[in-house]
Amino acid sequence: MYKIGTDIIKIKRMKLNYNFISKVLHQDEQLIYNSFISKKRKKEFLAGRWAAKESIIKILNTPILMSNINIGYINEKPTILNDNLKSIELSISHDNKYCIAVAILLELKEK
Asked: Could you give the 3-state DSSP secondary structure of residue 82?
């Protein structure tokens, strides 16, 4: 059985203040975020992480804080770096105004 979570968000809704950023981004992601110069790129990055993490949270059976989920890139593909979440596949896409993410988990039934 597959579990699928998805989320879409308007990029302009992202708030570039420390309290919001620290609730959404893992410490490692904050380093990447802080390397961006333009507000536009910061909002795109933040929207991508928000949508991805909302998608992940929707398929989990246990609560988790967004800031505890660490998303990085392996072979140019968004990948969850948390050991306990590595079985989740992730896709993030941006366009002009929106960001969408999909998370997929193959759940094996126990016999």
From this structure: coil
